[in-house]
Specification:
Elements: E1 2-4, E2 9-12, E3 15-17, H1 20-26, E4 38-42, E5 46-47, E6 56-61, E7 67-74, E8 81-82, E9 88-92, H2 96-100, E10 108-109, H3 116-126
Parallel strand pairs: 3-4
Antiparallel strand pairs: 1-2, 1-10, 4-9, 5-8, 6-7, 6-9
Length: about 140
């Protein structure tokens, strides 16, 4: 799970980490967000969207877990998108950045742990309940 600690919102509940050469090379090529809602690349400061069929929201995160740059609605076939000091790149479905209010300077937790109450809130939000403008509140870790 990925939480925006500054805004106290959940960015992702089903995160896939791109591990290994093949998974990192393929990324979101010929994929849709099916069974997961974010793909994270570590030790990464640039991406491309060549051969992709869907647009993405992208968050570049520094080694201190601060958001350095956001890119909303990044279209397929962009050969190079870069953020010099980024250490992580989070690829998300379009609308995720706006829904969570994520912005440069916010701090994210890439391995957030939630309690049952937070999980229930998220389920209610998915079923249509209004929670903070569509965003789901994230509880602090113990």
């Amino acid at each position: 799970m990925i939480c925006n600690l500054t805004k106290k919102t959940v960015i992702s509940t089903r995160t896939v980490c791109a591990m290994g050469f093949f998974q990192r090379t393929r990324g979101m090529i010929r994929r849709k967000f099916d069974g997961f809602d974010a793909m994270v690349f570590d030790r990464c400061s640039s991406i491309h969207t060549c051969f992709m069929s869907i647009p993405l929201d992208v968050i570049f995160v520094g080694p201190d877990h601060k958001i350095l740059k956001t890119v909303v609605n990044l279209r397929p076939w962009r050969p190079f998108v870069h953020c010099k000091k980024a250490f992580y790149v989070i690829e998300l479905p379009v609308g995720a950045i706006e829904r969570t209010g994520s912005a440069p300077g916010d701090v994210v937790d890439l391995a957030a742990v939630t309690d049952a109450r937070t999980e229930r809130q998220f389920a209610e939000a998915l079923l249509g309940s209004k929670t903070a403008g569509g965003a789901v509140r994230c509880e602090e870790k113990e």
